[in-house]
Specification:
The protein is of the alpha/beta class and about 375 residues long. Helix content is about 40%, strand content about 10%. The protein has helices at about 35-60, 70-75, 95-100, 105-110, 145-160, 175-190, 235-250, 285-290, 290-300, 310-330, 350-360, and strands at about 10-15, 85-90, 165-170, 195-200, 200-205, 205, 230, 255-260. The strands form 2 sheets. Strands 1-7-8-4-3-2 form a 6-stranded parallel β-sheet, with helices on both faces. Strands 5-6 form a two-stranded antiparallel sheet. Strand 7, helix 7 (about 235-250) and strand 8 form a beta-alpha-beta unit.
Length: about 375
Amino acid sequence: MVAVASSEKDELRRVLDDDGKPLPGVRVPNIPDETLTRIFDVMMLTRIMDDRMMRLQRQGRLGFYMKSIGEEASHFAVAPLRDGDWIFPSYREQGAWFWRGYTIQQFIDQLFGNEDDPVKGRQMPVHHSAKWLHMVSISSPVGTQIPQAVGAAYAAKVMGKDDVSMVYFGEGTSSTGEFHVGMNFAGVWKAPCVFICRNNGWAISVPSSTQTAAKSFAAKAVGYGMPGVRVDGNDLLAVWQVASEAIARARAGEGPTLIEALTYRVQGHSSSDDPSVYRDPKEPEIWERKDPLNRLRNYLRHRGMWSEAWETELWERYNQEITDALAASDHKRAPGIETMFDDVYEEPSWNLREQRAYLMAQNRTKNPHHHG
């Protein structure tokens, strides 16, 4: 088994420099070419989707959106997982959803909460859920998914399966009780859980420096009896490498790992946020030079696996698919009001059936925004 602890002086695992060239003396992970090109493809989709949806939000066509620009490489810690492994995402891992098979149409239907929304209009935009992809519902309150991920991982262990759970959260979440409880149980139970702390520098407007007195977020792992690894979260190859090692450890029964993916939130926390109020405007410029998409593009170019024509084709195809999905969603109704009684229990109870019948018997007012 490959040791997870870093031997580098700065304790930050890196494979690529800022220009996408392998650093001298590093071990480059053996990722199949078709996997690398697919990761770039999905990273492009994620960047295009974020740009298009944010513009829609600014035009008043979409109520809320959260971008992940500059953080996309961290999404692909999920790439070495098996389809049967469970992912407990935070609200800034769009690439992980698309990687697993969530479609552009499903993504957009969820944002608009229409009749084809996989969660039936019950969540605010960007709060997806896809049981069929083994991806658990996104929650706005931070950290709620951490104990759930540990519980799912431990359940797999008890059942004799070698499934792994992976859970994402921001560095601000390390200040919650759920983080402590989840990490503590995972360490005690040796749960096959991989914790991905996406340290993008800011918890909304709160900087990392006021979040912890620890040397790093990865350093917290030792107190829970597990390895902590710091990785350059904008280096796709390094993210793959440390995630693969942590997944292998978990699957082999050696317990959990905390990965701190050091990245940067180039823009605001969400469409409701103005970062110019609380941070130096020069700060994002420094990080834009470390852009994960540029670094992967340059790496593929060095390998002879990228061409401008290919990227142009991706850009045109995804923009068209997004345009088509938006046009389709414009003609979809809101979810039927009776669906609010679904999924409370496996079978509706007598009182729910009674309430549903009462509601459906009421007169309907015409909704001007309701098609049909």
